[in-house]
């Protein structure tokens, strides 16, 4: 019997050692991933590239944006694998980059200057896009013409039509998100460039006033061009509150705080049913966050202000932030997201990795706020400590970096195995340095259809990710899975900076 026990004990010990070995082999270099996640934004740049450009296969592009109407709209970012500048998701990505630096900049070390460059590339463009009072430019490029082609941004011959909102044709969601981006960025630059910071803040206030005074959705005036690409599905009220919250954080002026308090109840919509792979899930606006819905972000952002302010009265921010956390925890009785067998978080909508990164960002930020105020979250009988929130976020980040059933990093250039055929025009086509001759609209079709790996590495790009069964096909044509976006990467920058500081 003792011999049997010794054998069993030996087997258990060997299995434990094997598990430990796997765990060790799946440890991740968050600093390397952070560096690459920021580098990705250089691959998305539009306009005249600087001498400091590190993604050298990219060259100058769209150097005449806006010139046909006498406005300089050169610069900014392409949102994903296409060559259109959609300012709504670009502004959200900028806000998230700025928030990442404000929360976790100390964990970025030598990558911080590159993060600041990534933010400034966007804010310089937004200063141009908001330079004419009474107008906010919200898009450059005809999306239908662009999506009908597969060509490098350096070669674009599709219409670069500028689209703007105005007093007569308002667009409060995109204008208020730009205001939020400018206000958050003003805080980032305040310690290092006070003049630039003041300029950003002044413009943020002007654009917010425009968004609030002339309320309406850009769906109504620009729907044929912004939908279905970045149609506003959640209404513009959340962006107005979001913008006001960032302006209060940047200015401490009561007018913006009062705006938040007076308008937050407009966001308290009834619960809605959404479907994931045919299964219904109950959720409310408080559980949503991304380029379209700012609800959970508002509650988390404002919760810190509430915790530090006395006499604020009864507000829904902390309770809604807590409820939001309870929708994410697998053990919570009110969980409303689903998880793949390998542990990746899923919510309705395409490009699922955006949910994993944005919600992980809110998890680590709220964990910090809870720790500072010595609080925990109660989900029925389940008690979630700040450490539990961090653990859940870490599981998402590690999954993205390769701790998953497929054994693949979903960040291009990180790890030994990563997506090779991403849905990205510039990455899939030969660079201008290799192929100086123009590749016209349909000239890239063979590259699109090719089963060969992309010719240029868009290092740091995080793709839309696997399906809910952890399966990933690595096909260029499957854009839901294989296309990277700025709003997947932007919140991940902050999360990686957080875990990099912890590991170092």
Describe the fold and architecture.
The chain has 504 residues and is mainly alpha-helical. The chain has one domain: Glycosyltransferase (Alpha/alpha barrel), CATH 1.50.10. Helix content is 48%, strand content 7%. It has a three-stranded antiparallel β-sheet with strand order 1-2-3. Strands 4-5 form a two-stranded antiparallel ribbon. α3 packs parallel to α18. The protein is globular, with a radius of gyration of 23 Å. The N terminus is likely disordered.
Main sheet record:
3 strands, antiparallel
**Count of DSSP helices?**
18
Please state the structural category. mainly alpha
Tally of DSSP β-strands: 9
**Which term fits the overall shape?**
globular
Mean pLDDT over the full residue set: 91
Q: Strand percentage, roughly? A: 5-15%
N-to-C order of helices and strands? HHEHHEHEHHHHHEEHHEEHEEHHHHH
- Gyration radius over CA: 23 Å
Distance between the termini: 48 Å
Going across the biggest sheet, name each strand in turn.
Answer: 1-2-3
In CATH, the topology is named Glycosyltransferase
The total domain count is 1
Question: What's the short story on this structure?
Answer:
With 504 residues, the chain is mainly α.
Features:
single chain; 504 residues; mainly alpha; Glycosyltransferase; three-stranded antiparallel sheet; 48% helix; disordered N terminus; glycosidase; Glyco_hydro_9_His_AS
């Amino acid at each position: 019997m003792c011999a049997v026990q010794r054998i069993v004990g030996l087997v258990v010990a060997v299995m434990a050692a094997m598990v430990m070995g796997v765990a060790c082999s799946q440890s991740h270099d968050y600093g390397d991933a952070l560096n690459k996640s920021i580098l990705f934004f250089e691959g998305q740049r539009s306009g005249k590239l600087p001498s400091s450009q590190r993604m050298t296969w990219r060259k100058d592009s769209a150097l005449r944006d806006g010139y046909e109407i006498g406005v300089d709209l050169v610069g900014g970012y392409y949102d994903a694998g296409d060559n259109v500048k959609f300012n709504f998701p670009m502004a959200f990505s900028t806000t998230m980059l700025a928030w990442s630096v404000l929360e976790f900049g100390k964990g970025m070390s030598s990558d911080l200057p590159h993060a600041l460059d990534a933010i400034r590339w966007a804010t310089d463009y937004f200063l141009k896009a908001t330079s004419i009072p009474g107008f906010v430019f919200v898009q450059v490029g005809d999306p239908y013409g662009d999506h009908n082609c597969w060509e490098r941004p350096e070669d674009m011959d599709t219409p670069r039509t500028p689209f703007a909102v105005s007093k007569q044709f308002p667009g409060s969601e995109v204008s208020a998100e730009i205001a939020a981006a400018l206000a958050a960025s003003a805080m980032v630059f305040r310690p290092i460039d006070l003049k630039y910071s003041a300029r950003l803040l002044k413009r943020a206030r002007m654009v917010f006033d425009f968004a609030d005074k002339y309320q309406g959705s850009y769906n109504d005036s620009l729907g044929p061009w912004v939908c279905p690409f970045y149609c506003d599905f959640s209404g513009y009220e959340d962006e107005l509150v979001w913008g006001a919250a960032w302006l209060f954080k940047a200015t401490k002026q009561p007018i913006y705080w009062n705006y938040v308090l007076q308008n937050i109840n407009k966001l308290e919509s009834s619960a809605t049913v959404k479907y994931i792979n045919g299964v219904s899930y109950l959720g409310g606006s408080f559980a949503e966050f991304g380029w379209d819905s700012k609800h959970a972000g508002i509650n988390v952002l404002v919760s810190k202000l509430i915790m530090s302010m006395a006499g604020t009265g009864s507000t829904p921010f902390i309770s809604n932030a807590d409820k939001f956390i309870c929708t994410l925890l697998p053990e919570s009785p009110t969980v409303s997201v689903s998880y793949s067998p390998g542990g990746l978080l899923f919510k309705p909508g395409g490009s699922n990795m955006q949910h994993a990164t944005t919600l992980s960002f809110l998890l680590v930020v709220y964990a910090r706020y809870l720790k500072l105020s010595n609080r925990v979250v109660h989900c029925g009988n389940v008690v979630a400590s700040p450490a539990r929130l961090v653990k859940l976020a870490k599981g998402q980040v590690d999954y993205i970096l390769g701790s998953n059933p497929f054994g693949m990093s979903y960040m291009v250039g990180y790890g030994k195995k990563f997506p090779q055929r991403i849905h990205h025009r510039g990455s899939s086509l030969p660079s201008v340095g290799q192929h100086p001759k123009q590749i016209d609209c349909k000239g890239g079709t063979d590259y699109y259809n090719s089963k060969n790996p992309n010719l240029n590495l868009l290092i740091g790009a995080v793709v839309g990710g696997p399906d809910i069964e952890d399966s990933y096909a690595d096909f260029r044509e499957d854009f839901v899975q294989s296309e990277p976006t700025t709003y997947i990467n932007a919140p991940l920058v902050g999360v990686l900076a957080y875990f990099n500081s912890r590991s170092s």
